[in-house]
Design goal:
It contains 9 helices and 15 strands. With about 300 residues, it is an alpha+beta fold. The chain is globular, with a radius of gyration of 18 Å.
């Protein structure tokens, strides 16, 4: 059955029907999904029912799968499959984490606007997040995930700002982003495992051919600039790129599978009632090289 794609926002996001994510996509379906990703950057598949193993199998044809920072630390995990990230407020015994829990404090960095794993020399491409349990609505919010279209943000810059940004290289650092919320309690040796990585500030998205800003909370400073000047420019660009007209906010329902392209979006999680479980499972595909090796 052909897929149906319905835009959710003028710039970013579309709902896709006709896909069963418990089944590995065939070549025709895979190609259709890539076309939809290239056009809309964020896809929403509703009413899915997938195990962790099925999510891994569904994601694998899109590219090699990342094993995330938490899984690489070793030790007991709540989830058995290392390629499936545990994006939840639950500990290994499925209890809600205490507010001072180290893992919870680290993950609070996801509430900053960011691009996944931009601090790695070879960053990631797609993120796929599946909702197992979502918290109820509360005065704090319901744990929505917001996505910003970095292609539309680039298009809206004036020509002088585009010319300024085009050649710039930015250093990305996981420890810079976590330090912004006061989290500095990293395990021994972790800083050595994840040294800062330089990335282009402006990329050309290979699927659409459009130019895009590559920003993230991990973006520490501009290489070759005084640190203060670079951070001020990055702050201004982040403020510009996350204006409401560029942002789609996803309100989670159990069974939602959201796919997004990290090469041309930023995203952030929103607050929620932490007395209730929020259990999302993520698969992430790796890129094939550094942004510094990409054609302009």
């Amino acid at each position: 059955m052909a897929i149906q794609v319905t835009p959710l926002h003028p710039h970013i996001g579309a709902e896709v029907a006709g896909i069963d994510a418990s089944v590995v996509p065939d070549e025709e379906t895979l190609a259709a999904l890539w076309r939809a990703i290239d056009a809309h950057s964020v896809l929403v598949l509703k009413q899915q029912s997938v195990s962790d193993a099925q999510l891994k199998a569904f994601a694998a044809p899109f590219g090699p799968l990342e094993i995330g920072r938490a899984a690489l630390q070793g030790g007991k995990r709540r989830l058995d499959i290392p390629e499936i990230g545990d994006i939840s407020n639950l500990d290994i015994d499925n209890n809600i984490r205490a507010r001072d829990d180290r893992r919870r404090l680290d993950m609070l960095g996801n509430r900053l606007w960011h691009t996944d794993a931009s601090y790695m020399t070879v960053p990631v491409v797609l993120g796929m997040l599946f909702a197992v349990a979502v918290p109820p609505a509360s005065p704090l919010g319901a744990g929505e995930t917001e996505f910003a279209d970095m292609r539309a943000a680039w298009d809206a810059l004036d020509d002088d700002m585009k010319a300024l940004c085009e050649p710039l290289i930015v250093e990305h650092d996981i420890f810079w982003s976590r330090g912004q919320i006061g989290f500095t309690e990293f395990a021994p040796g972790e800083r050595e495992k994840y040294p800062p990585s330089p990335q282009k500030l402006v990329r050309r998205h290979p699927g659409s051919g459009r130019k895009t800003l590559y920003l993230s909370a991990h973006a520490s400073h501009i290489v070759g600039w005084p640190v203060a000047d670079g951070r001020l420019l990055l702050h201004d660009l982040n403020t510009h790129a996350t204006q409401r007209q560029f942002v789609y906010s996803h309100k989670w329902q159990t069974g939602d599978l959201v796919i997004w392209d990290n090469r041309c979006t930023m995203h952030r999680g929103r607050p929620h009632d932490e007395n209730a479980a929020r259990d999302l499972r993520r698969a992430t595909t790796l890129d094939v090289g550094s942004t510094l090796d990409e054609a302009a």
